[in-house]
Amino acid sequence: MVEQSDRAPLLDWEEIPSTRVPEQRRDLSPTGRRALGSTAPGTGWSSSPGATAVSVAVNEQVCEAAPEPACWTGMQKREEDSSPELRDWGSSSSSSSPKIPQWEEKDQIVAVFVVAFDTRSGNIVEWCLPQDVDLEGVEFKSMASGSHRISSDFIYFRKGSYFGLACFANMPVESELERGARMKSVGILSPSYTLLYRYMHFLENQVRHQLEAPGHYSQLEAFYEDKKAVLPTGNGTVNSQQPVYCLQMINKCMHPEMKITHPAGCMSQFIKFFGEQIIILWKFALLRKRILIFSPPPVGVVCYRVYCCCCLANVSIPGIGVSVPEFRPFFYINVADIEALETEVSYVACTTEKIFEEKKDLYDIYVDNQNVKTHHDNLQPLLRINNADRDKYRKLSEQRQVLLYSQEVDGDCNGSEEDLIILFFMEQNNRIFQMLLEVSSSQDKTLTEEHMRAMGLDPQGDRTFLMDLLEVYGIDVMLVIDNPCCP
Question: pTM of the full predicted structure?
């Protein structure tokens, strides 16, 4: 069982002021003279197919916005007569610098529900609004298998085109009918995962209220009336003109999904949990493999690991990742999701059901605690840590230590460990793809050992990884690195 210290702190349910002015980002590099890498939202997992990337030059404090996507799900463009501070942000270094359009995300709750465990029927949807919404399977997604052994948990999950968050609680009762325990979950559905965290505190309070005063739904009814969306066009479906992943607002010249999706600390905990294995997960994420993470309950912190794993694949170079499979987060899954997973070619998910380990046709990578493994022979070489991997992990650790030291000694709170980690991997990805693009546009299209080292890769140990990467992303270069028969 995961210790409490491994769980990221929860944020209160409160509105985020829509007029908040983003602060400009300071360089996180130890020397303070160069940026860790591009900081635009990448094509990792939160951008819609076809959404244009945004490039950001952090060290020059200039942000350059790409053309507006055709539609912005859940986003509202600010009026032209907004405050000068908002309109001019990002242009302090030059009056001719391009300005970033300001966006705010609306509340889009499409369903609120209460799930209960019935000793005769099992998990059931006890109550919901709207009453005609399709919640089939939600009773199992919002109450993870094995939850009867723990007192509380929170669960992120996916239901069709929607994302859900549910808070679970288990309360002992003196009732033979309930077999001594009352278990319930209170959850919500939204077309976007980015605002779900805002309601964590509310859902925790409501599930406790439902345990202590069953059948009283007035607060949930008021909540739904206040936050309900107008997106659905049918029975639980979303208009096809509005893609789920469409969030390109710049926040602090940073990746907005990293700022507002989950509580602070989950990325640093993710790194501490996996150690050097994080480099292996990084490679599989960049290759868009099907990654399944197993853990017994509580599953909330494991949902954070799904999120963090997806973050490793962020790339901010325009055009990269357009032709590769979308890296889809499924968060928590159970046996009811098997049919849906059979058609997925790239995803990250977590489960508490050990039976998934036997269903090898559903995943490429299986993560059990800190043990990362694969049943594919061609992927076995990627499980081995090489010298370049150790060097990357060492550099990441050193940069984290420098940041933590500056925060403790100098009181510098402008840098974030979360930002540093995200930027570190984004820089690695950008460096690799920038080099590959340069070689592919050259006359001989030849990739050498020098190129490999410049990308931060091991010429021998990363040969298989690079060949797979070229195939997945369709980059036309010729690999001329010898593969010796002996190490």
Answer: 0.74
